Amino acid sequence: MEKVLITGASGFIGKRLARLFLSKGHSVVGIGTSSNHPFSKEFKNFEWVSSDTTIKGNWQTHVTASDIIINLTGKNIFHYWTKKYKKSIYDSRILTTKHIVDAIEDGKTQKLLTTSAIGIYGDCKEDVLTEEKLPGNDFLAKVCKDWESEGLKARGKGVKVAVMRFGVVLGSGGALSLMTRAFKIFIGGPLGNGQHWFPWIHIADLEKALEFIVENQSLEGIFNFTGPEPLRQKEFAKVLGHTLNRPAIMPAPSFMIKAIMGELGTSLLQSQKAIPKNLTDSGYRFSFSDVESALKDILSQ
């Protein structure tokens, strides 16, 4: 039995991963700012630590004692980006990752899986984005670049590091719940002209791909966590509408998105045709390779 540490374990993805590793018989320590966690009563092998990971503290002793460290902490980006909020987005990711790496002991056998995002590439139009593509230069790209840089410093301590660049994670909750709300009241449709590429992944594949990396001890590096068949945002909206038996005819104009959401709105219109080259080259096989099968599975639950 291994000890798994998950920062951000009370979030949409964190809860799923905590349950996954608990079901495999591992002990799990979750860390986050919530005062408690429902798994504390449900699972005897789950321990919840309420702490602000942007600040050094006793929570770091759990880093030292863990075999597998999964770093998911990050302030939600779906919020209007004031100067203060952008600092929270940045600090929550970079400082947490720095403090995790600081707590790792030299030479100890551990594996760190740390989060990043497809946003690291910026707006890339029609380019096919493998993990070799250089970072962009906008705000989210800079956040991701610095985020990854802090995590990769753990290699200097002998730790194997896997950086997971998440696309939009589709599951019962998260971003998809926001999208389906609009469609259910017949105001769903593409963002802008919908021609930008939309990077996505089914949460079941996210779980399985992460487990695949954990179980393959020698596997490390940068991994795009996206479905293998990219599609444009307009096509995604069409498939979502069809799955919900709703029309996808109410586009949100680009100028309106930018006016209402500011810098966040601009980022939502970026085109990122990302493919999971390093995952598939390593032997991972997706359960949901196309968005239609992914949405049907999620929305039938």
Name the features.
301 residues; Rossmann fold; 12 helices; alpha/beta; two-stranded parallel sheet
Structure description:
The chain is of the alpha/beta class. It has one domain (3-169, 199-227, 273-288): NAD(P)-binding Rossmann-like Domain (Rossmann fold). The chain has helices at residues 12-23, 39-42, 60-65, 83-103, 139-152, 174-184, 203-215, 233-243, 254-261, 263-268, 277-281, 291-299; strands at 3-7, 27-32, 46-50, 68-71, 111-117, 128-129, 160-166, 168-170, 197-198, 200-202, 221-225, 231-232, 273-274. Strands 3-2-1-4-5-7-11 form a seven-stranded parallel sheet, with helices on both faces. The protein has a two-stranded parallel ribbon with strand order 6-13. Strands 8-10 form a two-stranded parallel sheet. The longest helix is centred in the first third of the chain and has 21 residues, at 83-103.
Summarize it.
The chain contains twelve helices and 13 strands. By secondary structure, it is of the alpha/beta class. Helix 4 runs parallel beside helix 5 (139-152) and helix 8 packs parallel to helix 12.
Pairing-aware structural class of the strands and helices?
alpha/beta
Tally of helical runs: 12
Mass-distribution shape: globular
Strand content: 15-25%
- The name CATH uses for the topology is Rossmann fold
Rg result: 19 Å
Number of strands: 13
Task: Please tell me the CATH architecture by its name.
Answer: 3-Layer(aba) Sandwich
Largest sheet: 7 strands, parallel
Model regions low in confidence, pLDDT < 50 over at least 5 residues: none
Count of the domains: 1
- What is the helix fraction of residues, given as a range? 25-40%
Question: How would you write the strand order of the largest sheet?
Answer: 3-2-1-4-5-7-11
Question: Mean of residue pLDDT?
Answer: 94
Order of helices and strands: EHEHEHEHEEHEEHEEHEEHHHEHH
CATH level 1 name: Alpha Beta
CATH superfamily: NAD(P)-binding Rossmann-like Domain
> How far apart are the first and last residues' alpha carbons, in Å?
31 Å
